[in-house]
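Case study B.
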Amino acid sequence: MNAKKQLTVTILKKTRKASESGKESIKAYMRMKKKILEILKEESKTIPEIAKEAGLNIDEVTYYLMSMRKYGLLTVANIDDDDEYYYYQLKQD
Amino acid sequence: MEPTTTNIEKQTAAGVDVTTYDALVIGGGIGGEEAALNLANMGYSVIMVEKDYSIGGKMVHLSKVFPTLDCSACITTPKMSETIRHPNIEILTYSEVRGIEKDGKIFNTSIVKKPRYVIEADCTGCQLCEQACPVVVQDQYQYDLVGRKAAYIPFSVAAPRVAAIDIENCTLCGACERVCPPNCIDFTMKEEVIDVIVKSVIIASGFELFDAKKIPQYGFGKYKNVIHAMQMERQLVPTRPYNTVLRPKDGKMPDNIAYVLCTGSRDKTIGNPICSQVCCMYSIKQAQLIMGALPMADVTIYYMDIRAYGKGFHEFYIQTKNMGVEFVKGKIAKIDEKDDGDLVLHYEDIENGGAPKTATYDMVVLAVGVLPQNNIPELFKNEVLELDEFNYVKQTDKLVNPGMTTIDGVFVAGTSSGPMDIPDTILSAGSASAETASYLRRL
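Model:
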């Protein structure tokens, strides 16, 4: 089964290059994912806390964190005392 | 479970002529579905061409409908399913009509089916390819608020529920192929040209949303907490991009939200002088839904006129006012962003002397209008499909035969003929299908 699968992508590779935008998006996602997972390893945090601790652009943290949540890497915990920001945590297995 | 064999394949196997159809329906939104189903239920054969990966149009992405607050997807998904399963309807998704030539009483039609790199009949929609794909790019079905993979199911209730490969962002790593249980990912797929003969055409291609970047003083695209109404619509559905309604800049739960009506409508400066018909009511609807999602939030709607013209609309508007939504008659001049992401609206307070004022909000929603699709006349190679003065398909006999166009045998349904809401679109599609059936009987 795998022989045929590999064959089709191999065939396309002969005439088409891998997408540069796709490669860049992988790098960006992996970089953000690594930082966010590292920061959330000990305890749940809000988006501003993550952005501040990692020195990252806050709207990028929101976008990637929500993407990680969508793909099941994170879950939502409680909201802060001011009812402003949710805490996010690593998904418990 | 969707059928694993397309109607074309079944009919070809049965020796049936699959190159001739009674009607071509361009567009698989609610108008196209309604028109196609009406004709199919009368026994006519229909081929539907949808440019997206799934039928359903814009309605399937809405939260609820006004003024009843019925779940939009709950209404439209049974119709999508009925359309896709109907034995008299053949659907080509991710396809576009390239050209239509009238030849006596028939139309020779050329359709391009673009490769989705997944064998539709074999895909089970298991999403293992999506899990394996390492690429994360902006999800157009969530209006860029969150990411999606390059191998993906377009959205949860897509019909057909079949994966697609976004080849423009694919790194050709092969991860999706390696995990696909039915072995249905096929990177050798090519664009396919399908020639069919149809006896009539229904244009139901819908509308385009106004691009809010064309009003730079509102800051859309620059200020992350300025969003457009479809982005708020997505935040209000169960399959929302975030866990609740949140600011895209920093994930803060907004305390006060402003709506800017007539963004891209009734505005000659951006080339769209007419009312979009739906923005007042969808904004009022969203205001009610926000009050449900965020009970502590204040919502203010800035308007030129509130046009609550339909059945139950005015009562819905009054109900919303009574719930505490504030309505301010005033045109927004510009929006500025503060360091903390809050937004300052500069507006003319018309009902209080017209003085320029400012107000600060956590989040601003631009109630973007609807625009016509401009490429429809180009499809007709030897006939002229005329447009009206606002670039919608011209209705030549608006009162008696509202589906009739300048080409005999070509009809128009829904927002291809002008801005309208969902019930009016369904009525319009009903009319277009009745006129098409009448035309077909006379052939």
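The longest strand of chain A covers residues 74-79. The remaining cases will be described in the next quarterly update.
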